[in-house]
Amino acid sequence: MNLRPDMTYFQQCFHELVNTPSPVGYYREFNPVLEKYARSFGHSLTFDRRGTPYIALDGEDNSKTVMIGAHSDTVGFIVRRVDPDGRIRVRNLGGINFASVEGETVTVHTRDGRSYTGLFACQSHSVHVFDDAKTLERNENTMMILLDERVSSKEQVYALGIRNGDPISVEPRDEVTANGYLKSRFIDNKAAVAACFTMLKYLADTGCKPKYRTLLAFPYTEEIGFGGTYVPVEVSEYVAIDIGLIGPDQEGDEYKVSICAKDNAAPYDYDLTSRLIGCAEKADCDYAVDIFYRYGTDGNAAVRAGNDLRAAAFGMAVYCSHGRERTHMTGLENTVKLLLAYVMGL
């Protein structure tokens, strides 16, 4: 079937989504953006008690409910403490690659709605000053934030409204090259969220409906392992849209959609994964089936939490996961096409 999702719309949507901060557990700024996109297609958001947003779509057959999970949270940091000299120390949120963030602009989000940028730096920050500037391991104990404010004490930082526990986002620096390479932080997983809205645009433009009642879920705690642990009881299938990985063990690349047969915890459901492979073939997707090490999705988190459902996962393969990632618009289009094929029951 010749599916033609609007990938210009995808790029525009992704740019806004990825530049709206949502490090693990921080939804204050991202929820209004989700609400805006949902309204543009005549839908509204609902929330469970954990704050996970949902969009519900009527299907041709509402006797069965399936869920598409595209987590909204990204890796980031949280304020650990403020040192006497005004430097901010952090804790990691979700396995960020410290080596990829050194020298990047970060933003501290206070609980009273203010935000402050800073430089994410190593304490041995200069080769002209420190003997171990090149060799010191970059981790939670050696990295710090230099606020872009004239502060030199803990008291001055506190006067800005910054406190322990404030979330910290990282500048995404997204760009699409003329020949279609998308380079950005947080392709994991803002690209999956953009894929969901591109899918909704296709349905709106063509008048097509999902085969079954479909819930779109956008949890904020996937990067710490439990975004999918609660699933509404009526859901019988959970398909997670998340990044694929590129490496020596993988067949996938930036131009394909990667179907995950197993993550670090367990294989995904055999029949549901086989159905996704069939959907990929019917939709003429370039795809690969792979297993991923040091990786998990909300799909298997839902199964491990005891929900009575089948789970599967697929998504766009990226280089440099949890750093500044790269993929290609061809792989992203194949991901949207597979999402449409699954939702429409091809």
Structure, described:
This protein is an alpha/beta fold. The chain folds into two domains: 7-74 and 186-344, Aminopeptidase (3-Layer(aba) Sandwich), CATH 3.40.630.10; 76-170, Peptidase M42, domain 2 (Elongation Factor Tu (Ef-tu), domain 3, Beta Barrel), CATH 2.40.30.40. The chain is built from eight helices and 18 strands. It has helices at residues 7-18, 30-40, 98-101, 154-159, 187-206, 270-282, 298-304, 329-344; strands at residues 46-47, 53-57, 61-69, 76-82, 88-93, 105-109, 115-122, 143-147, 167-170, 175-176, 181-185, 212-217, 235-241, 244-245, 257-262, 287-291, 310-318, 324-328. Helix 5 (187-206) crosses helix 8. The protein is globular and about 65 Å long.
Question: How many individual helices?
Answer: 8
Text of the CATH class of the largest domain: Alpha Beta
Radius of gyration: 21 Å
Structural class per helix/strand content?
Answer: alpha/beta
Q: Spell the H/E element sequence.
A: HHEEEEEHEEEHEEEHEEEEHEHEEH
Helix content range: 25-40%
Instruction: Flag low-confidence runs.
Output: none
Shape: globular
What does this entry show, briefly?
It is built from eight helices and 18 strands.
Task: Present the secondary structure layout.
Blueprint: H1 7-18, H2 30-40, E1 46-47, E2 53-57, E3 61-69, E4 76-82, E5 88-93, H3 98-101, E6 105-109, E7 115-122, E8 143-147, H4 154-159, E9 167-170, E10 175-176, E11 181-185, H5 187-206, E12 212-217, E13 235-241, E14 244-245, E15 257-262, H6 270-282, E16 287-291, H7 298-304, E17 310-318, E18 324-328, H8 329-344
Parallel strand pairs: 3-12, 3-13, 13-17, 14-17, 15-16
Antiparallel strand pairs: 1-2, 2-12, 4-5, 4-9, 6-7, 6-9, 7-8, 10-11, 11-18, 15-17
